[in-house]
């Protein structure tokens, strides 16, 4: 995908997001992880609706953290454009996701360009269904994400709705069914992200960060073993 030009007040590297209302995120299958259960750094290809490559994402952390902490591990996600320049940086600290620990819930911070915080996603305390708030660079809540009670991917998509502060649905993050073999033997996932075309590009990038957080919390297996369960216990 070529870079749109002449976009005022747009962080470098986010020009790609001004002309799209959908992103497709495909996780790369890691053969070592698939056959042994040994956790490796995740890698993702990010494309537009036409299948054109927009970004490439690579997780950055150490071997011990990945294999000891499993899906709860902290990580940095580095997003590169087609010129191999890092244009977005995301940081997920070590935290809990269970409703039993309301003071230490999940979050991820998004910077674009790296070092310039443009927003974050914070898990909200809930017992039944997952929910998140989307914050801008000032720390104000601008949107929310509401997930389903059951996040098992049983031969179908799992949808997390993006809603306005008034409760109106404005987009969604959808974990797409990727086939029986891939679902059972790997944790390589497909995601679709939809949002309004005129949404601030910073918030589009933050929704991409929300996708990586949701993937880590609900669809990342530990040693290729399914650990998800209904509710937020």
TrEMBL record:
Keywords linked to the UniProt accession: Calcium, Lipoprotein, Palmitate
Record function comment: May mediate accelerated ATP-independent bidirectional transbilayer migration of phospholipids upon binding calcium ions that results in a loss of phospholipid asymmetry in the plasma membrane.
Cofactor: Ca(2+)
GO MF term (any one): phospholipid scramblase activity
Any one of the GO CC terms: plasma membrane
Stored PANTHER family: PHOSPHOLIPID SCRAMBLASE, PHOSPHOLIPID SCRAMBLASE-RELATED
Family membership: Belongs to the phospholipid scramblase family.
UniProt name for this protein: Phospholipid scramblase
Any Pfam family: Scramblase
Coiled coil regions in record: none
InterPro entries per UniProt: Scramblase, Tubby-like_C
Organism from which the protein derives: Drosophila rhopaloa (Fruit fly)
